[in-house]
């Protein structure tokens, strides 16, 4: 599903990622852990082709990121849902409207959008708040809205960049539960975090990065160096 | 939300920027429309005069029919004549009556006696006119010789001057409108940076992102153009009596402006509106496209 082969990404003289190689299969759940500046977000941005590798080869769902033409990037991005630490919700749209964006861009009919958005909002337990605006819901609900938007079009991969970074421990636990449920339905989930507790409780594959290099890649890993 | 709804929402959410863009477009199309109509009218006038005989020889009242016939025969003998037509006083009156049939006052005041007889002459080649001139001037009974070339040349120099001033002004205003729409759309994109970023990340095509902005710019242009039409057409209607009194003799002008309820005038004003709307929409949408293109890069 995702293949990194000796990938490096430099910003000027600074190496954000150095000679990284790994393989992620369909349906996997993988934590990318490490301190700030370790290269976790850079790896996620390489997967969505928000960045191009300076060296090496990145293949996502059969697409070679290095040779993917600009006019095909949107097709790749439709198979990769993104969840952000700061939620990135549109303040002037309701929960329902924020989630429906992912289907509107596909040209789905009103009826199809309503049916699918309601299904996804039920999955993230936001069905009763669909007509509220982001300012009227809690941080955890905003993040669940962000997750609903990311999965509404049925992507093969869901990437979450520090999705619990702005949440209290209890809410973070709920968000993780939602992500595990989505993974159980067959979606590959990649999550960048430096939250030790979440990684250790999750008992999922963990790739640890320090200064842009992979220092460990364990199947049911933990994050002993992390900070909660 | 469809592209049209999104564009409409964008406009309503920042009405003052929208108003600035529409007013600029309005001024541009008002002047462009006025200069366009002036140019079309001047072309019609020029065509009319160019289709007229190259020389009109007017005879004095005391000129005899023999003098007129002699000049006609002598001109024909030069074999440099393409056509020559005699217009008697009575025929001149008939022409005058036809040209002023809508103005009874003018018809009452004129009789055949005060109109001169004339010869309308066209040479096989306009260059030969100078060779015919001495022959005409030497003939008996000739009172005045009118060269169509002089009229056309004078008209040409005026219309060229109007066209140059018009082109310069309209070009400057068009550039100004283009830049203002670009700036307004640029500001709107900057305000909606997060929305554009989210749309890009969830896999929207560049065209899906660009289209509402393109429609918005197109709306500014089309609304500005519509307002200019709403101002220009009443001006044309107000000027109609003046137009007819000066240029009513020109068939195409009389045909279009002779009656404001005629099909010709309705077709003219409808085509003028469609032309303005299309040009306005195109100008606004291209300016938006450039602004969005710069941002998405």
TrEMBL record, chain A:
One of its GO terms (molecular function) is ATP binding. Keywords: ATP-binding, Cell cycle, Cell division, Nucleotide-binding. It comes from the Bacteria. GO terms for biological process: cell division. Residues 2-228 form the ABC transporter domain. Pfam families: ABC_tran (PF00005). One of its GO terms (cellular component) is plasma membrane. PROSITE patterns: ABC_TRANSPORTER_2 (PS50893). PANTHER family: CELL DIVISION ATP-BINDING PROTEIN FTSE (PTHR24220:SF470), IMPORT ATP-BINDING PROTEIN (PTHR24220). Belongs to the ABC transporter superfamily. This is Cell division ATP-binding protein FtsE.
TrEMBL record, chain B:
Pfam families: FtsX_ECD. The chain crosses the membrane at residues 18-46, 161-184, 219-239, 246-268, 274-296. GO terms for biological process: cell division. InterPro entries: FtsX, FtsX_ECD. Residues 54-145 form the FtsX extracellular domain. One of its GO terms (cellular component) is membrane. It comes from the Bacteria. The keyword Membrane applies. Keywords: Cell cycle, Cell division, Cell membrane, Membrane, Transmembrane, Transmembrane helix. The keyword Kinase does not apply. Belongs to the ABC-4 integral membrane protein family. FtsX subfamily. This is Cell division protein FtsX. It comes from Candidatus Gottesmanbacteria bacterium RIFCSPLOWO2_01_FULL_43_11b. The lineage of its organism: Bacteria, Candidatus Gottesmaniibacteriota.
């Amino acid at each position: 599903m995702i293949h990194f082969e000796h990938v490096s990404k430099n910003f000027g003289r600074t190496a954000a990622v150095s000679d990284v190689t790994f393989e992620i299969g369909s349906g996997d759940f993988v934590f990318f852990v490490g301190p700030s500046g370790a290269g976790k977000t850079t790896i996620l941005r390489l997967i969505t082709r928000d960045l191009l590798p300076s060296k090496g080869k990145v293949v996502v769902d059969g697409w070679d990121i290095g040779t993917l033409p600009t006019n095909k990037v949107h097709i790749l991005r439709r198979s990769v849902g993104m969840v952000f630490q700061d939620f990135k919700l549109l303040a002037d749209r309701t929960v329902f409207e924020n989630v429906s964006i992912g289907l509107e861009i596909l040209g789905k009919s009103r009826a199809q959008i309503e049916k699918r958005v309601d299904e996804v909002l039920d999955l993230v337990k936001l069905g009763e708040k669909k007509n509220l605006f982001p300012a009227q819901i809690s941080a955890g609900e905003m993040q669940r809205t962000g997750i609903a938007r990311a999965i509404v079009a049925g992507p093969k991969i869901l990437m979450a960049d520090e999705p619990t970074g702005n949440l209290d421990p209890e809410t973070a636990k709920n968000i993780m539960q939602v992500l595990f449920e989505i993974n159980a339905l067959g979606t590959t989930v990649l999550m960048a975090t430096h939250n030790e507790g979440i990684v250790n409780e999750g008992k999922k594959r963990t790739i640890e990065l320090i200064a842009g290099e992979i220092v460990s890649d364990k199947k049911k890993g933990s994050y002993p160096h992390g900070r909660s | 939300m469809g592209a049209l709804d999104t564009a409409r929402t964008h406009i309503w959410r920042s009405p003052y920027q929208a108003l600035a863009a529409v007013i600029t477009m309005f001024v541009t199309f008002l002047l462009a429309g006025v200069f366009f109509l002036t140019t079309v009218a001047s072309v019609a006038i020029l065509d009319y005069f160019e289709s007229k005989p190259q020389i009109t020889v007017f005879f004095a009242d005391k000129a005899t029919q023999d003098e007129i016939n002699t000049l006609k025969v002598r001109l024909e003998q030069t074999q440099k004549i393409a056509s020559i037509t005699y217009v008697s006083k009575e025929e001149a009156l008939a022409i005058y009556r036809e040209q002023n049939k809508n103005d009874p006052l003018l018809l009452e005041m004129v009789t055949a006696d005060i109109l001169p007889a004339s010869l309308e002459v066209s040479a096989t080649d306009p260059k030969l006119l100078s060779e015919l001139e001495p022959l005409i001037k030497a003939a008996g009974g000739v009172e005045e010789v009118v060269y169509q070339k002089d009229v056309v040349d004078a008209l040409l120099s005026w219309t060229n001057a109007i066209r140059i001033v018009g082109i310069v002004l309209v070009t400057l205003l068009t550039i100004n409108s283009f830049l203002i729409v670009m700036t307004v759309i640029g500001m709107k994109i900057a305000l909606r940076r997060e929305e554009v970023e989210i749309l890009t990340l969830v896999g929207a095509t560049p065209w899906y992102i660009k289209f509402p902005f393109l429609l918005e710019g197109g709306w500014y242009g089309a609304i500005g153009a519509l307002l200019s039409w709403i101002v220009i057409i009443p001006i044309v209607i107000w000027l109609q009596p003046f137009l007819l009194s000066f240029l009513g003799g020109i068939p195409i002008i009389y045909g279009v402006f002779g009656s404001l309820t005629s099909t010709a005038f309705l077709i003219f004003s409808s085509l003028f509106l469609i032309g303005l709307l299309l040009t306005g929409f195109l100008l606004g949408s291209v300016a938006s496209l450039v602004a969005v293109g710069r941002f998405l890069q």
